[in-house]
Amino acid sequence: MTGSGQTSATGSPVKSKNPDYKYPLSAQTAKLTYQDILPLNEEGYPVTKEFLQRVVDVLMDWVKDTHDRSRPVLEFHHPDEMWRLIDLEIPDQPVTLQKLIDDCALTLKYQVKTGHPRFMNQLSCGLDLVSMAGEWLTATANTNMFTYEIAPVFILMETVVMKKMRELIGWDGGDSILAPGGSISNLYAFLAARHKMFPQYKEKGLTSIKGQLVMYTSDQCHYSIKSCAAVCGLGTDNCIMVPSDERGRMIPQELERLVREAKLRGDIPFFVNATAGTTVLGAFDPIDQIADICEKYGIWLHIDAAWGGGLLLSKKHRHPKFTGVERAQSVTWNPHKLMGALLQCSTIHFKEDGLLISCNQMSAEYLFMTDKLYDIRYDTGDKVIQCGRHNDIFKLWLQWRAKGTEGFEKLIDRLMELAEYMVNQIKAQSDKYYLILEPELVNVSFWYIPPRLRGIPHSPSKEQDLGKICPIIKGRMMQAGTLMVGYQPDDRRPNFFRNIISSAAVTEGDIDFLLAEIDRLGNDL
Q: Global pTM?
């Protein structure tokens, strides 16, 4: 880091024993503790300001380094080394403000720069600075989201943004909520679907259902769908995995066959999850065909678009991937992924208004009084299972204001363009790289082919060799700190690289670097 080294006018800077330390407080302030700042010291505003400004210096240098391609993506250390590098012990007595600044700087020093243009390891990449500014304000406001009474502006923002997202799905009306992650969003959909079919379940439990509920999802879905079956008492055996095709998309004919089999057994099919952007391959299940089956058999259709939801903003890429999305009863959509909002920012949307409150309301009068002076329809706490909710809306609202809907569309189209560029570069270097399939999203899946395997015809045995190379190259890239790209196996293949392009910072040059660097790291394997 290249700290500013600014000092307060109240005294000279203090030298730290840590050679990486470049954020000195004034001599007077450095020795103070949290007891000397607000709110414990009512006259502590000057010290408070100096302390927080130095924290901002740390953060701003992090922002600068994150966007500097000459800086590493990470400074990797094994856990036993990290224990020695950072003092993580909880003391009995307060440490000084200077030590707290040290702690902040060192924490970021050893943290992975997920906003770095060459971090392509996760579905959520990048550092949108407007969204980050929103997160800073959110943390400072430090309010809960369960009543209009304590979060009036934020509640109205949530109302506006959720309505906009439902309109993009294609619904007129409905209801939505921000949830702590896509997994919980999917859980909300499961609960609402069961409540819709069996409203007595809320009070009577299992006795209200005369038969075995079964649900369906593709064998390429996110594991949270199966988790819903476990958490909600259905049992994972009753979460039926529908076979997918060679591109990772659910096969509708197989879904209908399995539904018919269940009904012949006397089971009750009640929920189908269609994935719009699978985690590994970025595949889109055929929504329109699946919706036909759900309507035919009276089954709730949920779409897990946690990953691919951003394509709803693109006129160029929305169809045919999302054709029929408006026919679903619920949709999960994570702006912290393709849209680049900061973690976490996950939404769940329902076509039918009133389901959330009907399904989850517990009427806790000590929290959600009905005789308030304002319109209590804006209180959200009683329609969610978690009571308190973190404010995840302001950073998204502010980001959307900054970009506009057209700006988001340009972002999505640009990311898809970069994925296409990478595919073309891989094809142009077919001696070094093997493209596994043409991507539907920004997941680019491939193998690296070292010199000793070039010229050998592709075969299952060669795939096994290529799969063994992936973790070795990943280990080398982490130790070099130049790049982070994920790898994993699936049910058809051994390990392969899955590159994710979801950061606005990525350019064609970064993709060229990625391919050259993997070749450099794996050339001797």
A: 0.93
